[in-house]
Amino acid sequence: MGALAHEVVELRVHGVSGTSAEALLDHPVVTRVAGDDHAGFYRPRPGFGISDRPECLRVEAYRWGALTAGSAVRTLSLLFLLPFMLINLAVWARPPTGGDGGIIGPVCRLIAATLTAAFVLSVVGATVDIVGWQCTPYESCLRGRGYLVWLAELPLGPRLALLALLPVAALRLLWWLGKRSARVFEAFPAARGQDHGEERIDRPGFWDDALVVRRLRVIHVAVGLGTLDVMLLGAKIQRYSQPIAYVLFIAAWGLLAACAVLLVRPARRSEDGSQRGPADLRGIRTLQIAATTLTVLAIAYTAVPQSSQLPQGQLPGYEGAVAALVAVQAALLTVLTAATLAQRRRAHHVASPWLSGLASPVLAAAAVAAAYGFSAALVYRVADFLDRGDIPNPVRPSKPGAPLLEPPVSYRWAALAGLVAVLVVAATIFWQLLATRRRRARMAEAIVRRDFPDVPPEALPRRDDVRTAVARAAIPEQLNPAVIVFLVLSLLGVTTTALDVAGLGPSDLSARFAHTGSAAATALALATDVGMYVIGLIGLGILVLGLLSYRSEGTRRTVAVIWDLGTFWPRTVHPFAPPCYAERAVPELAKRITALTTRGAVILSGHSHGSVLAAATLLQLPADVRSRVALLTHGSPLHRLYARLCPAFLGDPTLYELGSRIGWRWVNLWRDTDPIGGPIFSAHRPGEPPLPGPAGTVDRRLRDPHAVVAAPDDTVPPPIARHWPYHTDRTYEAAVRELADRLNPGQCHPGNEH
């Protein structure tokens, strides 16, 4: 059947649950009409199933879930990119000032570079330090380990040079993961790329981060290689000092300084704005060549045989490097917090921002904490395995003839700080939930009494279930104090560890305890050991969640909200973060809508996170296309999460502008039992008057459930729908027909078919 001249297409976009096209369309047999297996457009196959809709009102679905879901290997690989994802998200959570973000962007990019350096340092610690320097020279560490004996037969220099190839391989693995996971997005390129993304979300090319990622990837690889070079050359200078070592050492620090300058300085465009300027491209290529050449020279010089003296203690300079890096991160987090507070005071039109407007430093601190959690777990687990089960600790005497196998004390205190943070934050959440329990219960009671004023006695337990669901749906708004406590503890933790550089931190305290034999020393050692196990259990828990989210749709729906939020934004801060799926989804949706409007009109229907994709798509469309489009959102986190977490890009002014651009052809459906979605313009509290003007007509509250007693023709009461599904609700169908009539007056009523 050919396309109708005045057809209206309801284009459904699902949320993070990644549902099937059949479920999304409520149709047993569907066919793909555009796209591919990763992201495609589907329609019911003609002749299968029944429909009471008029012929001119079609339905289509955009299924994009495969862009973020995938194989178990891919899911687990993305787990290790969590710190990079968090720091990339931090720059998008800045307060709105109407400007370009000031220094928040450069500071976030510098923190991102320190995370790359921390990643390399952790691999250096597990390989070059623990294995090559501390373990293999000792027979007791090699006993029964034939896979390490051959390393002991090598001189110290060649052994360290050989093991130094593992951090290089780890960097290459990060590069490969980013390239491999981004391939599915390259099938649909967006408009010309942006610089650093610190601009309006409606700008052309906002969703094309290819040029930015390419530039950042070269810089971060140079940071990683420079960090490795500094460690190798610093250790070489301590044992076999020659002028060439100092020359290469200074060159390695110069390489790191050049990377910092490039990260602070925005990339320059050519005059037509289509690509990077020639000077900028030459600088990036020069940096890549310099980093590779310097690393080859550093590894080659390390391979020169050194004295036969048995190495003692840790790799020279390694513990100081870890402490110095923590000090740099502490300074950057402090600057980021101060800059965010200053911008928050200048912010305009912000209503109750989430995390009290401190989302950027909170996410950055979480990125640093996750990075050091992974680093400490890696280094300590390797050391624990090699010393046959005894977690290294200065207060615990080592066995005779065995190496101490001591990781940096900064990792030990990171474990202790992590334990304190977990306990305090958990206690804060528990206290906050208890403190707000009565208030949430009163709010829920008011809602259920309004919705179900007169119920028979046998339906009271069912009404109590509804009240509990409403109260639990309000929990996300109660977590602000917990994340603020986490930010304060994170800043205190990194600051305390940073004082180690001046001899006032954990190393000095550990040394004092190690010689006292006091109960405090024993308690500190026990707490550190517990902290290490807690970090390991948290990492294992994240791993299990990743596997369950791959196998269980329900678990994925729970954990994917944060993950899809982090991968929604372009990678303008860390190139090894998981790729931005909106890089494909938004321009692909825009192209499809543009094509459909040439034959009629489109109702863009977005559920949950799909409503965010819908809003971003509409902001990219030209005016002549928007005039033929209406928006239907349901279970939408646009205001509840995005406007409050990312107010500079999807705040209230942007949402009002979106409504104006589409002529306020917008309906938003929400439920009190929904823990994710909510109203966009109206107040969430019952009894509040509607907003004046067209914005007050957008939000439509749905009573959930429809009733607490079974219908005369049913055997059980209606279920509590909560977040899913909305498109099966009769109010949804009424909203579709209302919007269709506003787009195409009088054309799509029953009995008026073409």
Walk me through what this model shows.
By secondary structure, the protein is of the alpha/beta class. 56% of the residues lie in helices and 6% in strands. The protein has helices at residues 21-25, 72-79, 82-90, 104-135, 139-142, 146-152, 156-163, 165-182, 210-239, 243-264, 278-302, 318-346, 359-386, 409-435, 437-451, 460-473, 480-498, 506-514, 519-551, 553-566, 582-597, 609-618, 623-626, 638-645, 647-650, 652-661, 730-743, and strands at residues 7-13, 30-35, 40-44, 57-63, 600-607, 629-634, 666-671, 699-702. The chain has an eight-stranded mixed β-sheet with strand order 2-3-4-1-5-6-7-8, with helices on both faces. Helix 4 packs parallel to helix 13 (359-386), helix 9 packs parallel to helix 11 and helix 14 (409-435) runs antiparallel to helix 17 (480-498). The longest helix is centred in the C-terminal third of the chain and has 33 residues, at 519-551. It is elongated and about 90 Å long. Residues 269-278 have low confidence and may be disordered.
In a few lines, what is going on in this structure?
This protein is of the alpha/beta class and 754 residues long.
